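I'm stuck. Protein, please.
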Amino acid sequence: MDTESLPRRALLAFAVVLTLPALAGRAAAHVRYVSPGGDPLAVAEFLAGALMDPFNLAVLGAGGLAGAAAAATYLRLRPFQHDLAVFREAMAEYRDLLPWLLRLSVGLPLVGAGFSGYFFSPAVTLGAPTFVRLFGITVGFLLLFGFGTRLMAFTGLVGYLAALPSHPTLLLAFEYVPALAAIALLGGGRPSADHVVSRLASADTVYARIDPFYRKVAVPFVERVDPYRALVPVIVRIGLGLSFIYLGVTQKLMNPGNATAVVAKYNLTAVVPVTPELWVVGAGLTEAAVGTVLVVGAFTRAASAVAFLLFTTTLFGLPDDPVLAHISLFGLASALLVTGAGGWSVDAWLSQRTESAAEWVDRVSERAA
């Protein structure tokens, strides 16, 4: 341990705790996408060395305690209830645009992947470049256009899952699984070509008399999957959470050589003067913590906002990061801001036992009247 004075070290620890979310955001890119490659490090030795440093332990412990204290304080004091009620009401107005948001979030990076020649993830290239290009461009463009949306989502999902056993690196782009599954349940929504076609096919038009597909296939399928649309927030939430946990653990904590190479490449220790080990462990634990909170569905909109912050700091902090590959993550985080946690979540459990923001506003308004 060095000879710095205790007050100075305490002040530095406090500053790092306050900047930990932004700190993790700068290092939150997929390490595989930006890493110049680093010397292999023994994981157990690296983690033991990082966690045996009292300063590192103080920063990480204070960060965890700060998060728990913030959650407990919110549940106790319930501040900003009117703001939350208005925000949730505004988000609810965007629910009909959720299919469009998800289609953009998946279609754009797939088109980019097709033109760039990689398969879902920039780290995965298959042995059939023509197929990869046609697959990405076709599926991505038709999702953007909203034509045959459910079929294209299913095709994309099958393609991803079929390639996964032979290319486990595709787990770097695992967010495509919940995104494509959600699109398959929601359909094209509006605006989309599917919406226009359905209006033509359901009315007394010439097209309705010659379309053999709409009434015999499309309508029965929609009626069958419609009861499962309520699962979309759950699918998106758990899928995004698992992506965070996987990236935090495998790309940071279990891959310290490449992760510290990223810290060195961007000179991140000059941004916040802590050791590279703290950068790596802090980023990995923050991502894993955000992912865990999303999986259990606790404070989902707040966790989604933190996720959005991490992606944004990565976007502006790492100049050569493949931004297009992160659009799907931006879209899923934005979708959760709209939907909230959905069922099977801590948020749903709390909503049954505590007063909602809207109910609080109504009660206070009635009391004031």
Observations:
- The radius of gyration is 23 Å.
- Residues 96-229 form one domain.
- The first helix runs from residue 6 to 18.
